[in-house]
Design brief:
The protein is an all-alpha fold. It has one domain. The chain has 3 helices and no strands. It has helices at residues 4-7, 9-24, 27-50. The longest helix is centred in the last third of the chain and has 24 residues, at 27-50. The model has no long low-confidence stretch (mean pLDDT 88).
């Protein structure tokens, strides 16, 4: 069973990427980098959580 906490990584990564992108002056690419990295991290967390 998937916990809801894993799904909170995706909007968190999106906002983190937006913040970094705004700080660097490129919010669009920052959004996509944050979103992509959040999906990767959520998949890795799900993989380790299912091994328990």
């Amino acid at each position: 069973m998937v916990k809801m906490n894993n799904y909170l990584l995706i909007p968190g990564g999106l906002l983190l990427g937006l913040g970094i992108g705004l700080a660097l002056g490129h919010p669009g690419p920052g959004l996509f980098i944050g979103l992509g990295s959040a999906f990767v991290v959520a998949a890795i967390v799900q993989m380790f959580a299912s091994k328990k």
